[in-house]
Design a protein that fits this description.
The complex is a heterodimer of chains A (about 375) and B (about 160). Helix content of chain A is about 30%, strand content about 20%. With about 375 residues, chain A is of the alpha/beta class. By secondary structure, chain B is α+β, with helices and mostly antiparallel strands. Chain B has a two-stranded antiparallel sheet. The longest helix of chain B has 15 residues, at about 140-155. The chains are: A alpha/beta (about 375), B alpha+beta (about 160).
Chain lengths: ~375, ~160
């Protein structure tokens, strides 16, 4: 991976400074673009290593860490991009707790970044997991996908306060059939779980991860329960089991497309010690309100991917909600380009020429 | 003579290749497709030795340059209604743009002044390579060949499911 794929050698500095908050694929792609345009770039991340979910979410057998490490080193050594790790940027709102806060050594304010730089890019991803909304979901032993995956990957950094779930010999139910669910199931099997169940409301044909992934999981020893939906998690002071209801796909409607799901079938129990709800992450950037992100999403802004605060831009999953590395990269590049154009026109005092011209939705990633 | 080589067994379908291509050229020339067995894979131009797209083009708009890159003079096909090339390419690598120049294709970024293909530069999985044609064989593994067969089968017959594991 080479984030400076737009240039061969570092150009002369253009005298402008940009702070990027969040070193995932969107932030790093933007850093590469801006470095190629001669910007002085500073990247902040709350984690001890740059790469975002490419390092701490997606398992190493899918994206080898070394590919990201080398790309980051190139930004740092050849292009002078500075990385401020273990540093969390806060807005005016109270912070919610999220995976990865254990690593934070320094807190800095968004306002300070805005004052010290010509522009700021927010690319903080989606680190808040959607919770299972079930009786028993607050029992110890219930995790979200990221809560389960992140500590296992982060435990390699030997930081006190990060405790990986004890998986060996345990029985685990994974709810969902997206990539996060697949990653959780593979990780559990690799760490010596006794039994791994994949529970999905629909069938493998509808599974977002695809039929091939499901059969590969089965081949590695997982047991798949299709057409089953969790009703409640049982147990006294920790998870002891999960009750599921059988589902069926109702008749196709006239368009033949939409087949509503009804989960009114017989109930059955799985005896498990751990339940992981891998049912998606939600975009909850720390500064959503300050920035008026709703408007940016709808495209009601003065400048592509610019927020309510002048000179503050946003990109990646923080803007779009959970997506893929590719969309995050695209969004980061677009934001960097927009940021550069904005600063250039501003320097030439020409922003007025574009006043009132709203950015169309189609321009958004 | 260099070309693109994709090891489908390493590809995770993240779409980064398509994203950077789209960023540079608007209409991406390497495109993600969701196979019937559920994986996302990129399809791209193989810069064939004996290109079908070139053979069927009635305007002689497609040519092979001295580096073996199969290139398109986009303006030349403006007035062509046949769009034979779109149907002829076995890798779905001729693209409609919806713009003034209606068709585009991969040119391995020859216009990017020696920077090479952006897609290969940005692949996070080291799956997509820009290599000399003579080196391609040495990159192949049993896994890459199996994965390629799955994709091949899908391109020929999009409704076919993946061969048994
Ligand atoms: C388990 C899992 C598996 C996945 N598998 C795939 C896959 O196979 N293929 C694929 O294409 N996509 C996959 N994805 C999705 C992909 O990882 C994301 O879409 C992508 O990483 C988003 O990039 P981003 O730059 O927007 O955000 P992120 O990668 O989330 O990066 C955001 C960064 O911001 C930092 N940050 C957040 N808040 C602050 C703050 N206040 N101060 C400082 N730093 C902060 C975070 O520490 C993080 O490093 C997967 C996701 C998960 C969770
Ligand atoms: S960037 Fe690489 S891993 Fe991602 S889809 Fe393209 S070839 Fe596959
Ligand atoms: S466009 Fe298709 S037929 Fe033409 S060279 Fe590329 S892969 Fe071969």
């Amino acid at each position: 991976m080479n984030f400076t794929f737009l240039c061969n050698t570092p150009p002369p500095k253009n005298g402008r400074k940009v702070a990027i908050i969040g070193a995932g694929p969107s932030g790093l792609a933007a850093a590469g673009y801006l470095a190629c345009m001669g910007y002085k770039v500073e990247v902040y991340d709350k984690l001890p290593k740059a790469g975002g979910l490419m390092i701490f979410g997606i398992p190493g057998h899918r994206i080898p860490d070394v590919n990201i490490d080398e790309a980051v080193k190139k930004l740092q050594n050849d292009y002078g991009v500075e990385f401020r790790l273990c540093t969390k940027i806060c807005g005016s709102e109270p912070m919610h707790e999220e995976a990865g806060d254990q690593f934070v050594l320094t807190y800095k304010s968004l306002g300070g970044r805005v004052e010290d730089n010509d522009a700021v890019l927010i690319s903080t991803g989606t680190w808040k997991s959607r919770r299972l909304n079930l009786p028993g979901a607050d029992l110890p032993g219930v995790y979200s996908g990221l809560e389960f995956l992140f500590p296992v990957r982060a435990a390699g950094y030997n930081i006190s306060g990060v405790k990986a779930p004890d998986i060996k010999g345990k029985k685990i139910a994974v709810i969902g059939a997206g990539f996060t669910a697949v990653d959780v199931a593979h990780l559990a099997l690799a760490q010596g779980a006794e039994k791994v169940y994949l529970v999905y409301r629909r069938t493998r044909n509808e599974a977002p991860c695809g039929t091939l992934e499901v059969s590969m999981l089965e081949k590695s020893g997982a047991i798949c329960h299709e057409l089953a939906s969790p009703v409640r998690i049982t147990g006294e002071d920790r998870v002891q089991g999960i009750e599921l209801a059988r589902c069926r796909l109702a008749q196709a409607d006239d368009t033949g497309r939409c087949r509503p799901l009804v989960c009114d079938g017989e109930l059955f129990n799985l005896e498990v010690d751990i339940v992981v709800g891998a049912i998606g992450e939600i975009a909850a950037p720390p500064f959503a309100h300050d920035l008026g992100l709703e408007n940016v999403r709808k495209g009601q802004v003065r400048w592509l991917q610019m927020t309510n605060i002048d000179s503050v831009f946003v990109a990646g999953d923080a803007l779009t909600g959970p997506s893929r590395v590719g969309s995050a990269v695209y969004s980061g590049l677009k934001a960097a380009q927009s940021l550069d154009q904005w600063l250039t026109l501003k320097a030439e005092n020409r922003l007025n020429e574009y006043k009132g011209e709203l950015i169309k939705n189609t321009d958004l990633p | 003579m260099k070309t693109l080589y994709l090891d489908y067994s390493k590809c995770i379908g993240c779409g980064t290749c398509e994203a950077v291509c789209k960023f540079i050229y608007r209409t991406p020339r390497i495109i993600m497709t969701r196979t019937s067995y559920g994986l996302h894979v990129p399809l791209y131009c193989q810069h064939c030795d004996n290109p079908k797209c070139m053979r069927v083009c009635i305007r002689k708009a497609i040519f092979q340059d001295d580096q073996g890159v199969v290139r398109l003079r986009e303006e030349v096909c403006r007035t062509c209604d046949s769009k034979n090339c779109l149907m002829a390419c076995p890798y779905v690598a001729m693209m409609c743009t919806g713009g003034d120049n209606p068709v585009t294709k991969c040119d391995m970024c020859v216009t990017r002044a020696g920077l090479g293909p952006a897609c290969a530069a940005m692949c996070p999985c080291d799956a997509l390579h820009y290599v000399d044609r003579t080196e391609m064989a040495s990159l192949e593994t049993e896994a890459s060949q199996k994965a390629y067969e799955r994709v091949r089968k899908y391109i020929i017959c999009p409704d076919c499911s993946a061969p048994a594991l």
